[in-house]
Amino acid sequence: MSDLIYLDHAATTPVDPAVLDAMLPYLTEQWGNPSGIYSIARQAKQALEEAREDIADVFLCSPNEIIFTGSGSEGANLALKGVAYARRDEGRHIITTQIEHHAVLHTCHRLEKEGFEVTYLPVDELGSLDLDALREAVRSDTILLSIMAANNEVGTIQPLREAIVLARQQNEDIVVHTDAVQAAGCMELDVEVLDIDLISIAAHKFYGPKGIGALFMRRGTPMIPLVQGGGQERNRRSGTENVPYAIGMAKALTLSQTYRDARSAHCAALRDRLSDGICGQIEIAERTGHPTQRLPHVASVTFANIEGESILLNLDMHNVCASAGSACSATSLEPSHVLQAMGIPPHRARGALRLSVGHGTTAAQVEHVLEILPGIVNQLRAMAVV
Question: b/e string for 199-234 if b means 16 or more Cβ within 10 A?
Answer without folding.
Answer: bbbbbbbbbbbeebbbbbbbeebebebeeeeeebbe
